[in-house]
Amino acid sequence: METFFDPVEYAKECVRKEVERLMPTEILFATVDMEKLTIICSHSRTYLEQNFVCTKEAKELECSPTTKRLWKYPEIRDCWLKYCDENGVKNK
After folding, report:
1. pLDDT number for residue 1
2. pTM for the whole structure
């Protein structure tokens, strides 16, 4: 069976390798709280609570071992960008 060169897959693999090389291995998982989420999203806490963090996708990324609400990062950032695209949200 003959295999063909796929430039997109090659580029993805190059990017993955470079990210792995540059990222410290001890930082594998990080979280952000509501304060940081408001900074990342450039929207108010009230807006995020009423419109975004209550969505199924955002709730799935919440990981709060205590009473403080935390979300997986960078996954929540990607979830926010998808939410913006689907709902026509403009960044301030």
Report:
1. 59
2. 0.64
